[in-house]
């Protein structure tokens, strides 16, 4: 059975992610007590269920300490994947303010006294850190709900086993992705933004691609990033990683970083030796993916 554990910081989009799994045909359970996880999986196994998504968060309190061992037990007979949703504190505070909901840990200290929202968020981060360190982390700070659903769908389309390498473009003006393992800064490269004809376009558009591919510095940067990843990727695989996020950033996340993510990801997707290792490559453009879809 394929077991997907969805966890993370309150307000980061766990409900959105769980609905994406439900839409994909998974059996879904929200806010499950930790002690019931193994019983649930055993029951679903008897019912011949093949894929399940379970949301567990910090409301489970001290019982979260038992979860890593339970997951190890489940891995003996099942495929287990952990998805950790995160966001920066300012974004979380804004979301709670907009929805006017209370944080689930806001009155759950040992003396049952109220704590501030910031204190509740930090307590939650501490409780969930053991899970975050072994999970596929998604930073939802700068993305809307429809983008998170799309990213979850992309993840579900990937291979079930092996390492997932995510190439993500972003704009530094909106902050670093907190889920990035490797970050490459390409702001030193010539910027198509200063060409009035190229400014409204993106790195997905042919005129921008032609502009950038004819610049020696861009070619050099592309080759250097490919060389670095090519050299060290086997070491990440040997380390037992399940996910590796390579973030490439320019100023606005529209031209240079998008172009380089596309170029570099296509190199690795076509790398036959890596394909034999069952590596799943995913592409994300944080700033472009955040633009709401329009209908005509």
Automatic annotation (TrEMBL):
Residues 1-159 form the RapZ-like N-terminal domain. ATP binds at residues 8-15. Transmembrane segments: none annotated. Keywords: ATP-binding, GTP-binding, Nucleotide-binding. SUPFAM superfamilies: P-loop containing nucleoside triphosphate hydrolases. The keyword Zinc does not apply. One of its GO terms (molecular function) is ATP binding. Residues 164-288 form the RapZ C-terminal domain. Coiled coil: none annotated. It holds the Pfam family RapZ-like_N. It comes from the Bacteria. The keyword Manganese does not apply. HAMAP family: RapZ_like. This is UPF0042 nucleotide-binding protein. It comes from Polynucleobacter meluiroseus.
């Amino acid at each position: 059975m394929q077991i997907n554990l969805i966890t993370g910081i309150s307000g980061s989009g766990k409900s959105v992610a769980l609905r994406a799994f439900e839409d994909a045909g998974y059996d879904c359970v929200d806010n499950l007590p930790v002690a019931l996880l193994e019983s649930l999986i055993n029951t679903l196994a008897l019912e011949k269920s093949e894929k399940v998504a379970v949301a567990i968060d910090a409301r489970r309190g001290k019982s979260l300490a038992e979860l890593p061992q339970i997951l190890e037990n489940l891995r003996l007979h099942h495929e287990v994947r952990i998805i950790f949703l995160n966001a920066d504190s300012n974004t979380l505070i804004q979301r709670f303010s907009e929805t006017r909901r209370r944080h689930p840990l806001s009155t759950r200290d040992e003396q049952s006294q109220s704590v501030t929202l910031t204190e509740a968020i930090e307590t939650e981060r501490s409780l969930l850190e053991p899970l975050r360190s072994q999970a596929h982390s998604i930073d939802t700070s700068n993305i809307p709900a429809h983008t998170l659903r799309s990213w979850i769908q992309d993840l579900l389309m990937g291979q079930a086993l092996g390492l997932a390498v995510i190439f993500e473009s972003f704009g530094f003006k909106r902050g670093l992705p907190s889920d990035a393992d490797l970050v490459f800064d390409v702001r030193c490269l010539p910027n198509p933004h200063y060409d009035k004809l190229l400014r409204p376009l993106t790195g997905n558009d042919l005129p921008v691609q032609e502009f950038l591919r004819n610049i020696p510095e861009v070619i050099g940067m592309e080759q250097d990033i490919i060389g670095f990843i090519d050299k060290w990727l086997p070491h990440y695989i040997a380390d037992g990683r399940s996910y590796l996020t390579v973030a490439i950033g320019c100023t606005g996340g529209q031209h240079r970083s998008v172009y380089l993510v596309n170029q570099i990801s296509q190199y690795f997707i076509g790398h036959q030796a890596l394909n034999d290792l069952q590596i799943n490559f995913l592409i994300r453009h944080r700033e472009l993916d955040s633009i709401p879809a329009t209908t005509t």
